[in-house]
Design brief:
A hairpin with a 7-residue loop joins strand 3 and strand 4. With 198 residues, this protein is mostly beta strands. 11% of the residues lie in helices and 54% in strands.
């Protein structure tokens, strides 16, 4: 009987190990090359900087029946990578300048997280941001967590394509949300590839 109990216990441990190995997933890494697993990860403290692609602009479209779009000729995103795997960090800067149709002030830049998507590409999540937009004297605040519509295409440099809906937080009368359209070029770090594993 003792031998049987020992066998059952060992079998259980073995099964748990197999299940654990089967459900484990590799961590996302911001890498300098396409090597899998990554052998040249960008370290903690690396600056993350992106500017609007040359010749393009940001378009911010209110949802519903509300005032016209806001378009901006300049926009910059800056932050630092604070974790090596599933890279996250705080944004120190998220500006929109030379805008037509409204005034945009980012009161809280928020945080970013980079996730692996397919091949060496990724997607971003933004959280904790607040964007103040004033149109025709009416102030409205948008922000929160944005999980969709932020696609990172790897390369030297990498590119971020944005078609992201951002919910309204406060203000009246204000649209329930806005949709941000933009294309950013990542100038730091470069090159940038999103891989799994280190």
């Amino acid at each position: 009987m003792n031998h049987l109990k020992s066998f059952v216990a060992l079998a259980g441990v073995g099964l748990m190990a197999v299940l654990g190995a089967g459900t484990a997933s590799a961590e996302t890494t911001a890498c300098k090359a396409t090597t899998e697993p990554c052998t040249s990860a960008w370290p903690v403290g690396t600056k993350f900087v992106a500017h609007l692609e040359s010749g393009t602009h940001t378009t911010i479209t209110p949802t519903g029946i509300f005032p016209e779009d806001v378009t901006c000729k300049k926009s910059t995103i800056e932050g630092k990578i604070e974790t090596a795997t599933t890279p996250t960090g705080k944004l120190s800067k998220f500006t929109h300048e030379e805008c037509v149709g409204g005034v945009i002030t980012v009161t809280k830049p928020g945080t970013f997280t980079i996730h692996h998507d397919s091949e060496h590409n990724g997607r971003l999540t933004l959280a904790g941001g607040e964007y103040h937009i004033e149109q025709n004297g009416v102030p409205c605040t948008f922000g929160g967590t944005i999980t969709d519509g932020l696609t990172l295409t790897a390369g030297n440099p990498a590119r971020i394509d944005v078609t992201a809906e951002t919910p309204g937080l406060s203000g009246f009368p204000c649209p329930p949300s806005i949709v941000i359209h933009a294309t950013y070029i990542v100038t730091e770090p470069a090159p940038l590839y999103i891989t799994t594993g280190v």
